[in-house]
Here is the input.
Amino acid sequence: MLQEEILEKLNQQINNELYAAYIYQAMGAQFEAEGLEGFASWMDLQTQEELEHARKIYDYVNERGGRVELRAVDKPPKDFGTPLEAFQAALEHEEMVTGKINELMSLARKHQDYATESFLQWFVDEQVEEEESVNAIIDKLEMIGDASSGIYILNNELGRRQ
Here is the structure.
């Protein structure tokens, strides 16, 4: 059985992951409206990943005899600015999620909940990948600047993401 404090934080993390999916979907909607289908496709795949993360925690809570408590998901912003600004916002959000995962890991250690600590290690590793992926795109966008040909090429590259 999960400690009440850990259960509360896991339920909050489900909400955080759902909100992340919402943010990425909103970014995708903006890119779609701007004709950047490759950027939109990348965001759609990111949305699916975040939903999978939420489901992973949801399943874990159930496996450990806890009760999942779904909460309202905040409305995401509508406009994220330029592609660079959107990916900078994505990185900022991923860094926030990393902080929440780290807090959960510390809490699991505090309560000597080794099963939850083991479960959370996957998320620790995943966040390293998430931040690295977004940072790589930011680096390319900074290199491209305002060059429309560079945006065109990157749009095609991002559209090939599987």
Observations:
- The mean pLDDT is 97.
- Residues 29 and 93 are 18 Å apart (CA to CA).
- Residues 4-159 form a domain with the Ferritin fold (CATH 1.20.1260.10).
